[in-house]
Design a protein that fits this description.
Chain A: Its main location: membrane. Chain A: It is a multi-pass membrane protein. Chain A: It comes from Meridianimarinicoccus aquatilis. The complex is a heterodimer of chains A (251) and B (268). By secondary structure, chain A is mostly helical. Chain A has 2 domains: 33 residues, no CATH class; 214 residues, MetI-like fold, CATH 1.10.3720.10. Helix content of chain A is 79%, strand content 2%. In chain A, strands 1-2 form a two-stranded antiparallel ribbon. Chain A is globular. By secondary structure, chain B is of the alpha/beta class. In chain B, the strands form 2 sheets. Chain B has a 6-stranded mixed β-sheet with strand order 6-7-8-3-9-10, with helices on both faces. Chain B has a 4-stranded antiparallel β-sheet with strand order 2-1-4-5, with helices on one face. Classes of the chains: A mainly alpha (251), B alpha/beta (268).
């Protein structure tokens, strides 16, 4: 955005919203919105505390494990669905159901099946992220230029080589797009899991602060979480742009 | 009676006891109810360039892909070097109309990709690729990516890849149709010297009459509805006077006219 000849850096609009937040907070309209400055003071106060570090590690572990499985299972399944008519017919209805299903409703079932521990949280995280990764990978593989497939066949590529040396890379821009959205969904998954299954990690902090009306603590943790999710998403967006140069000229 | 050169070209169209590299016998192919190829038989002499020429819909690309093993034929036989083939094999290499390069790989890796798929160790395949990159005139572009190259240069990469696997049959599917006119002329000249130097059998699909007559030792004129080989033409153009003179040879002009006369009815 350019105002009076000055080019403003990206997301400068956040300043306006931050200012508005501060003003509303200062007027003391509602306990729910403490001034932004107070939230930041709290943020720096709690960020080094053992409770916070513990919450961060617990959340990060569950999140990373969940995302790992979502990617490690999602991409191959998506590639297979994109290449095999049979698998596609078998799995596509399920993927479509789950990608739009209110997965939160499934969490109690997971608790019954997998217990109240880390395992259920990781599975919840994976479930939130995996479907869009599968769908995007499938879409990416389906649009691979036909002659690239014929090329690998005509030069005698084994199935394995075709998947790892051609299909994966040819679908990479779509795969990364799917991973980016999947990861954002997984952030939702890990917090919902921590809130519903066992009160650990950031979920525990949210629960603690909200029930004790420590609103500036609550907002502080939320801002940290937003910032983390946003950085991951931006990083993946950056990777996506790195490969987009060939998304345009694959055909 | 003395035949004109052109008449003898058509009369001699049936090859005698030549060494046949690829032979197709009674090949049929249907797409559902559509007959793409019907009982087609053709011989491709070793070390020569045979063009498959015809209007769109005559099945020339289908035939080429069947020879490559990329499409299954419904009946008939494809015999390459005396053996019946049903799938792709190392004795045939394909050059694609749209180049089919890996956009994420350098020229070097693209050219060496056929060898990579065959499990040739890296240093060995890169040596070989290097040689063919030079051969097609792309020295210095080893580390460039396809999107940094012009259409003509990309097709040179495709050609180098096909040459580097050392197949003795090269299948070219309208390889010059996606490159501009000047580049195309240069390509045709290069193709002639390639045929002369490489001792390979070239099967070349084109819809350009001039291109076919210019480059070919033998032209299979295909016609659609139903698909069939209408005529085999062996242009006997004296190429010793240099490639520049080919389009001025009376033989060249006569054959172009004659083919056009056959095709005219099929072009809307």
């Amino acid at each position: 955005m350019v105002i009076m000849g000055y080019k403003l850096p990206n997301m400068s609009s956040l300043l306006i919203w931050g200012l508005l937040w501060e003003i509303i907070g200062q007027t003391g309209l509602t306990f729910f919105v403490p001034p932004l400055s107070e939230v930041f003071v709290t943020l720096f106060k709690i960020i080094g505390t053992p409770a916070f570090v513990k919450a961060l590690t617990e959340t990060a572990q569950a999140f990373l494990a969940g995302v790992f499985f979502a990617i490690a299972i999602g991409i191959p399944v998506g590639i297979f669905m994109g290449r095999s008519r049979l698998l596609d017919e078998l799995l596509l209805p399920w993927v479509n159901i789950f990608v739009s299903a209110p997965l939160t409703a499934l969490v109690p079932v997971l608790m019954v099946l997998f217990g109240f521990g880390m395992k259920s949280i990781i599975i919840t995280t994976t479930l939130f992220g995996i479907w869009i990764i599968i769908l995007n990978t499938r879409a990416g593989v389906r649009q691979i230029n036909r002659s690239l497939i014929e090329m690998s066949r005509s030069f005698g590529a084994s199935q394995f080589d075709a998947f790892t040396k051609v299909y994966f890379w040819a679908a990479l821009p779509e795969i990364l797009g799917g991973v980016r959205i999947g990861v954002i969904r997984a952030v939702k998954g890990v917090i919902i899991g921590q809130l519903l299954i066992s009160i650990v990690g950031f979920g525990a902090l949210f629960e603690l602060y909200a029930s004790n009306f420590l609103m500036s603590h609550f907002w502080a943790v939320l801002i940290v979480l937003f910032a983390l999710a946003f950085s991951i998403s931006e990083f993946l967006g950056y990777l996506e742009r790195r490969v987009s140069y060939y998304a345009a000229n694959r055909s | 009676m003395v035949m004109s050169q052109t008449e003898s070209a058509f009369a001699n169209a049936h090859p005698t006891e030549q060494d046949i590299a690829v032979s197709i016998r009674g090949v049929s192919k249907n797409y559902g109810a559509v007959e793409a190829l019907k009982d087609m038989s053709l011989d491709f002499p070793r070390g020569q360039l045979t063009s498959l020429l015809g209007p769109s819909g005559c099945g020339k690309t289908t035939l080429l892909k069947i020879i490559a093993g990329l499409l299954k034929h419904d009946s008939g036989e494809i015999i390459v070097n005396g053996k019946n083939v049903t799938g792709p094999g190392p004795n045939r290499a394909f050059v694609f109309q749209d180049f089919a390069l890996l956009p994420w790989a350098t020229v070097m890796r693209n050219v060496a990709f056929g060898l990579e798929l065959r499990g040739v160790p890296r240093s060995e395949r890169e040596d070989k690729a290097e040689k063919y990159i030079k051969g097609v005139g792309l020295a210095g572009f080893e580390n460039a990516y396809p999107h940094e190259l012009s259409g003509g240069m990309r097709q040179r990469v495709g050609l180098a890849r096909a040459l580097s696997v050392d197949a003795n049959v090269l299948l070219l599917d309208e390889p010059f149709s996606a490159v501009d006119e000047q580049t195309r002329r240069k390509f045709q000249e290069d193709l002639l010297s390639l045929v002369a130097n490489e001792k390979k059998t070239f099967i070349f699909v084109t819809h350009s009459i001039e291109e076919a007559v210019y480059c070919s030792d033998q032209i299979a004129l295909l016609l659609p509805r139903p698909s069939r080989v209408h005529e085999m033409i062996r242009p006997q153009i004296d190429r010793s006077k240099g490639v520049d003179n080919i389009p001025r040879e009376p033989e060249y002009l006569d054959i172009v006219d004659q083919i056009w006369a056959s095709l005219r009815a099929y072009v809307e």
